[in-house]
TrEMBL record:
Claim: NAD is one of the keywords in the record: yes
Organism: Acetobacter pasteurianus NBRC 3278
Domain of life: Bacteria
Name of the protein: proton-translocating NAD(P)(+) transhydrogenase
SUPFAM superfamilies reported for this sequence: Formate/glycerate dehydrogenase catalytic domain-like, NAD(P)-binding Rossmann-fold domains
Length: 373
């Protein structure tokens, strides 16, 4: 069983899908692994480190993929890359199918079995495979650090010979996996922290990491433990409850998301204009349209008193460990489908079924199939 590890090509992507130590564990499942030459370098894993772990490298992508049974990647590969894969082989990668119709058709037509990492069900049994969570946790940790770089203030209270500096106020909006890590990090750095979400259970979670919960009185729990979109009346209520907290913040981190929808708008232009001079907003919703009015994905801009930061790939900023966690997520997934050196997915298993996007010449995910075909 040959497993190929692709070198990522997206401009801001430093991660690699498999790191040497985890590759060694996969080899014990009865597989031989080959890395596309230089594939781990940007994430601090040199070719020499792979070689030491018994992983060979290959510069020619056609040779790498032509006889590979399983191909591992982080970002959706190009259609050209997919065309080099052999029919019946398995691709494990983030795909984001709705934004990649041509890729999905190429996977279907090439008879590739695709495990789309973003489709891993968010259930207890699949937690160890949940790459959305592992990457969001690191992104959330990094967001306050990124915010700090653009502030002209420190986060903690500090007593100096010439007087005391007050602690900064940090507001995190959206308390999923990323938001809670952002709150925990800002709290550890000494900020006075507030958190807000539309799922009431996040109150206790925010308090458990040392933050105060801003209760807007709106409960928007939706299906599957996710939030639903707010009604216009709820939006007005939330806006009124939050405006003062937004105005007082030195740093705001927004992470709100509703599955399948544009990022919900949490800060409008008037609220932004009412913020303190020198304050910073890190908008983690940037790739999905932004939680803040005016956010530009991939850019850092000044809007009135505020520096508005729109990061598009925070996990890549922590590529060494983001790759480590992603590689472990993949290991836990492959362990379910590789037995005695043979690929034998059980498509009746809930996790495998939920994660499979294409198989045997068909799009097997109904929602994506309807969207694309
Ligand atoms: P996400 O990235 O989809 O959304 C981030 C947060 O934004 C969520 O907490 C959501 O409630 C919030 N949000 C949406 N609209 C909002 C609005 N208008 N204002 C403020 N906040 C808003 O979330 P996620 O981190 O992927 O996690 C979503 C859920 O899935 C959580 O309940 C989490 O506990 C759960 N989860 C379960 C598992 C598991 O069991 N394996 C793993 C990860 C996450």
């Amino acid at each position: 069983l040959k497993i190929a590890i692709l070198k990522e090509t997206a401009a801001d992507e430093r991660r690699v899908a498999m790191i040497p130590s985890v590759a060694q564990r996969i080899a014990k499942l009865g597989a031989s692994l080959v890395l596309e030459q230089g594939g781990g370098a940007a994430a601090t894993y040199t070719d020499a480190a792979y070689t030491q772990a018994g992983i060979t490298t290959e510069a020619d992508q056609q040779k790498l993929l032509g006889d590979a049974d399983i191909v591992l990647a982080v970002q959706p590969p190009s259609v050209d890359t997919v065309k080099k894969m052999k029919p019946g082989s398995l691709l494990v990668s983030f795909i984001y199918a709705k934004t990649q119709p041509d890729l999905v058709k190429a996977l279907r037509d090439g008879k590739i079995t695709t495990f789309a990492m973003e489709l891993i069900p968010r259930i207890s049994r699949a937690q160890a495979m949940d790459a959305l969570s592992s990457q969001a946790a690191l992104a959330g940790y990094y967001a306050p650090l990124l915010g700090c770089v653009h502030m002209q203030k420190i986060l903690p209270m500090m007593t100096t010979a010439v007087g005391s500096l007050r602690a900064a106020r940090v507001l995190v909006m959206g308390l999923g996996v990323a938001g809670l890590q952002a709150l925990a990090t800002a709290h550890r750095l000494g900020a006075v922290c507030e958190g807000y979400d539309v799922r009431p259970e996040t109150k206790e979670e925010a308090e458990s990491v040392g933050a105060r919960f801003v209760d807007t009185g709106v409960d928007a729990r939706g299906a599957g433990g996710y939030a639903r979109e707010l009604t216009p009346e709820e939006k007005t209520k939330v806006r009124a409850a939050l405006s003062q907290h937004i105005a007082q913040a030195d740093l705001i981190i927004t992470t709100a998301a509703v599955p399948g929808k544009h990022a919900p708008r949490l800060i409008d232009a008037d609220q932004l204009a009412a913020m303190k001079e020198g304050s910073v907003v890190v908008d983690m919703g940037a790739p999905n349209g932004g939680n803040c009015e005016g956010t530009k994905a991939g850019e850092i801009i000044k809007v009135g008193p505020v520096t508005l930061v729109g990061p598009t790939n925070l996990p890549s900023c922590l590529a060494a460990q983001a790759s480590e966690l992603y590689a472990k997520n993949i290991y836990n997934l492959l362990e379910q489908v590789v037995h005695d050196g043979t690929l034998k997915p059980d498509f009746t298993d809930d996790v495998i079924k939920g994660t499979t996007l294409t198989h045997d010449g068909a799009i097997t995910n109904d929602a994506i199939k309807q969207f694309i075909e």
